[in-house]
Amino acid sequence: MSSIDTVLMTGKPVATALYERLKPRIEVLGQKGITPGLVALLVGDDPASAIYVGSKTRKFEELGLLAETRTLPGDISRDDLLAVIAELNAADRFHGLLVQLPLPNHLPANDLLESVAPAKDIDGFHPFNLGRLLAGNPTFIPCTPQGILELLSHYGITVAGRHAVIVGRSNIVGKPLAALLSAKQPSGNATVTLCHTGTANLAHHTRQADLLIVASGQAGLVTPDMVTPGVVIVDVGINRTGDDSPKGYHLRGDVDTEKMLGIAQAITPVPGGVGPLTVAMLVSNTVLAAERSAGVVHN
């Protein structure tokens, strides 16, 4: 069997195209004296979280948008954090409010995410927004699933009629993505299998995939023997693996990418695949939130 010329689906050109489409909308808001604004809450001193928040806010600043990070002590109480969220819910200059995950173990993430005003929940994690997504009438779509759809569209990957297998059932990626891919819409109409840590014989299911999305958080989980040639693979995982480099680690996906070359029709690299799209969709949702608050409708 001849080797497949695998397409490497990098996220940067997709994100760049999206930012270009957003610029006229940002200009319209600017003419009304409105600057889309994001405030990110960073609790504690987790280095990875600080890097993620920093990359997000830098992109906002590059586009002339408002971005502010509130860094709070890791031992902050639930009630004190709720008070901060309530204050920011009421702050008109911020159209989006992001609570960076993971939170310290003593803080109930679900309660805190539910306290974010749905109109500012640009992550799409609030039960109101997740419910509307499941009903097929989304307000805000979670950024990573939305970015995956944008990525597939950019590279001409047809979703309709495919068998999409998702590995991972989080509210951040797996569950909303399953709803989007199975929805009766141009970017959906796939048959979806949702796998997870309790799935018996995972390889049996992944081998049936035309489209495989892996968001397990387990480095190198999916290997070449677990897929069928010609599959399209989206690797959402980003895992730090220790090594003897100056940084002391390198980043790996949930899929053994190098070994998939020549087998997969297309695959996302790690890093540089889905990541840029997650940030781009955060910007997009913040612009959308600003438009809604101002009563601006875009085509």
Q: Can you tell me about this structure?
A:
The model has no long low-confidence stretch (mean pLDDT 93). This protein has two domains: 87 residues, Leucine Dehydrogenase, chain A, domain 1 (Rossmann fold), CATH 3.40.50; 134 residues, Rossmann fold. Strand 2, helix 2 and strand 3 form a beta-alpha-beta unit. The protein has a six-stranded parallel β-sheet. It has a three-stranded parallel β-sheet with strand order 3-2-4, with helices on both faces. The protein starts with 6 loop residues before the first strand and ends in a 5-residue tail after the last helix. It contains ten helices and eleven strands. With 299 residues, it is of the alpha/beta class.
In CATH, the architecture of the largest domain is 3-Layer(aba) Sandwich
Q: Per DSSP, what share of the residues sits in E-state strands of 2 or more residues?
A: 15-25%
Q: Helix/strand/pairing class, anyone?
A: alpha/beta
Structure annotation, total helices:
10
From the N-terminal CA to the C-terminal CA, the straight-line distance is: 47 Å
In total, how many domains does the architecture comprise? 2
Taking the sheet with the most strands, its summary is: 6 strands, parallel
C-alpha Rg, in Å?
19 Å
Uncertain stretches? none
Largest sheet, order of strands side by side?
1-11-8-7-5-6
* Secondary structure tally: strands: 11
Following the backbone from N to C, one meets helices and strands in this order, namely EHEHEHEHHHEHEHEEEEHEH
What is the CATH topology descriptor of the largest domain?
A: Rossmann fold
Percent helix, as a range, is 25-40%
CATH H-level superfamily title of the largest domain: NAD(P)-binding Rossmann-like Domain
The CATH class assignment of the largest domain is Alpha Beta
Average of the residue pLDDT scores:
93
**Global geometry:** globular
